[in-house]
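RETRY 2/3 - previous attempt timed out on the joint model. Re-submitting the same 521-residue input unchanged.
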Amino acid sequence: MSDTKNWIKALDTTKVARGDVARWDHDGRSYAIFRTDSDAFYATDDICTHEYAHISDGYVEGTTIECPRHAGCFDFRTGQALNPPVCVNLRTFPVKVEDGAIYIDIA
Amino acid sequence: MHQENMVIVGAGHSGARAAQALRANGWQERITIIDAEGRTPYERPPLSKAVLKGERAAEVAPLFPAGYLAENGIDFLSGIGATAIDRAGQRLALSDGNTLPYHRLLLATGAIPRDLGVPGRDASGIYPLRNAADAESIAQRLQPGVDIVIVGGGLIGLEAASAAISRGCNVTVVEAGPRLMMRAVPAPLSSKIRHHHESKGVRFLFGRRVVGFGQHAGGLNSVSLNDGTTLTCSASIISIGVLPRTELAERAGLTLDNGVAVNCFLQTSDPYIYAAGDASSFALGPGVRMRLECWKNAEDQGSVVARNMMGGCEPYLPFPWMWSDQFDQTMQIAGIADGAVDHVERQCEDGTLLIYHLDDAEKIQAVSGFGSIREVSRGVRAGQMLMERGLRPSRQALQDPNCDLRMFAKAVVA
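RETRY 2/3 succeeded.
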């Protein structure tokens, strides 16, 4: 099967620490790129669905990101909103890693 | 067909959350919320922030998603107050003359702002800051060049000062105590917050009390202080704390103790009546009571009380946490610093100050921070994690801004 995704190179993998998140700004929009302790990568919108905050400033634990402003949590693998005050899921984006770089399909 | 009714007095945060939690936990019979305010239930935190700044209306942050009440069969009696509780008959009397039978009753009556009983208080232009109408009235007064006096240097006063400055007002904060946020944060953090506000143009007067308001043609034109100072102003915000609303409980003969006294299950002295939120004074242990006035407490108590009203017996364990936004800075506090004997300061590179409060066994009791949202939230969240797990990193680790405190939790798991 051919790769039909619109991959855009985001960050080098070294820019995202294990068990943490990094922010990537592209074309006027911010994305949050996550790396688990077992080196799986995920990407979501970086702006919380509740009020304005960059979730990449937040606290990562396991596969959960907690928004820095009001402590709403999301599962960053699926974008699912886990507890109030957040109730709208985060948008997620396909990710691949090639030659030490993280690519995101932001289409 | 007869249906049992869960009746909730008050559509503030804890009342609204309790209604949602009753449905989420499977309660299929009636739920009725009554609220005298007559507005769509709304979130309070934005009132002293975005609403004061004129960035948005209170209704922009509703407590219930659109359509939620109807879809979930929750009756909302808006603009109607509760006047009396007939405990023997389990009926609530309403201001419209009707009575409502209840299976369980939840008092989520909230709090009212403390007022100043000083001469001239009846002048127009003097506002408490508690509800949406207050915030909207104040927002209209915050015009460029207007002199505003804020009475009280607590959290609400500081958020109001921040909003007023951002709208170009001249702001003076009068605080009776020696420093800002006396009850909530330690002196080094008070000092940092003060300097940040002063750098933005806020003027503080400490150790002084308001003794009167001057007026001209019925409108406020000055505030007089006990040292003889007179401050010219056209509007004043009174932010000197709140009192729990207990009249309904008191008239019903329920036990009060700095609020409606409830046991650890949030149950009042009448087992069919519960209380949650700002009005609820809950038992923490023998002879120890606490009443918390924050979003997190209202949120968590709303969920716990709903399960207990349905027959559960889940004790409420508070994990106090609060936030504030002031200018471009954020503040967060977690835990309860009472009983702490020492503290460690963590000074981050971007100017953020975090303070970890330690007890005599060097365990973290509380953490507070003021600065960038990133450093404050990460530092406070790490402190909460360490508290919850009873972990004791060294003072050196707490102090070192380059030490990622999350590693202590990982080390335990691994």
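The mean pLDDT of chain B is 94. Closing ticket.
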